[in-house]
């Protein structure tokens, strides 16, 4: 009998036959979802000898949902995700014209999925631009709800911008060129602390050694500077036994991190782009405000050649949606052609998140083996010497065969 996953005392409680939500998505979504389901089901069956099984609950969203119900994100879908607590989704196209700005943003806001988590590591054989791509192995926690992404901006010449400009000039002495477009960058102690807390908890649970807050606090002192300050304050109050701030590392430990401890440090965002290229092995878990995290996630993924196979998740308290990080690539829709790797690895993340790490490792190892076998989808094949191009579904079959 399948059962709903529960969330009790801050923990997900997952039985042997959990109901998990699945949104295939638009464009190439159905192709990569089919491949992903095949791989995840096979890994779970293999890892647990058939004693565990995911009961997939298919949910409507995107263009098909719109055609059926007149809504891109039907109420029933939202209500069911709320009950299911864990779901995986393919890409959704952004409706053109008015209405919803982006379905992904709408989902994040609706469920307050405040952390966008992107693990980035290299898989042997994946073409990449680096000399030692394997040196980069980071997990990025990007704040998802605040910062310049909060949607608080007004166009140049609008009444709203003019009103705000007037207030800022008259009351705060701001110097603003008349007729400017204006945007607001809200960052709260609560929003920042909960994100950094989640990154530290992840580091503790996964044996990671360093959490780095990436900010532009030298320029934006009261927003990004405060993000970093709130992080240090929260860590001192909530993780005093485990977390050592960088300043203390030198004062008390001669620069050497004691066993079992986690280093909390911070880096200025622009310098961090250099650091990740020049000294990638020094970084581990990154906690960032929204915009920095957006840039860093793609830059890191490109470094390991994995933009097409980079996994991701949007997570809040008691709810998590795992997703392909690329879009719907409409020109390839229904051709059984594209790489399902991003959604498959997001599925691996999901299995780990559910505590089904054995199945998660099987997925990762088998995918690695399939790539090493050089029978890969077009995107990898065109960059790998001696590789044979296979379809999306064939690639999934090869992954299953490698288990
Ligand atoms: P895209 O769908 O990511 O596609 C851009 C290009 O990336 C494709 O043409 C293809 O490159 C490559 N690509 C993407 N996924 C791939 C895969 N699985 N395997 C191999 N190659 C892959 O970006 P877009 O064209 O800018 O966006 C299309 C739609 O997706 C838009 O409506 C956008 O709003 C939406 N979108 C949704 C999400 C999401 O749901 N999370 C994210 C981003 C965009 P080549 O042409 O070189 O083969």
Description:
The protein is an alpha/beta fold and 403 residues long. It contains 14 helices and 17 strands. The protein has helices spanning 29-47, 63-69, 75-84, 103-110, 159-172, 189-205, 221-238, 246-253, 269-278, 290-303, 341-353, 357-372, 378-381, 392-401; strands spanning 6-8, 11-13, 19-23, 55-58, 86-89, 115-121, 137-143, 153-154, 182-183, 210-215, 243-245, 262-268, 285-288, 311-316, 319-324, 375-376, 388-389. The strands form four sheets. The protein has an eleven-stranded mixed β-sheet, with helices on both faces. Strands 1-2 form a two-stranded antiparallel ribbon. Helix 6 crosses helix 7 (221-238). The mean pLDDT is 95. Bound molecules: NADP nicotinamide-adenine-dinucleotide phosphate (NAP).
Q: What topology emerges from the helices and strands here?
A:
Blueprint: E1 6-8, E2 11-13, E3 19-23, H1 29-47, E4 55-58, H2 63-69, H3 75-84, E5 86-89, H4 103-110, E6 115-121, E7 137-143, E8 153-154, H5 159-172, E9 182-183, H6 189-205, E10 210-215, H7 221-238, E11 243-245, H8 246-253, E12 262-268, H9 269-278, E13 285-288, H10 290-303, E14 311-316, E15 319-324, H11 341-353, H12 357-372, E16 375-376, H13 378-381, E17 388-389, H14 392-401
Parallel strand pairs: 3-4, 3-5, 5-15, 7-13, 10-12, 10-13, 11-12, 16-17
Antiparallel strand pairs: 1-2, 6-7, 6-14, 8-9, 14-15
Helix pairs in contact: 1-11, 1-12, 1-14, 6-7, 9-10, 11-12, 12-14
Bound molecules: NADP nicotinamide-adenine-dinucleotide phosphate.
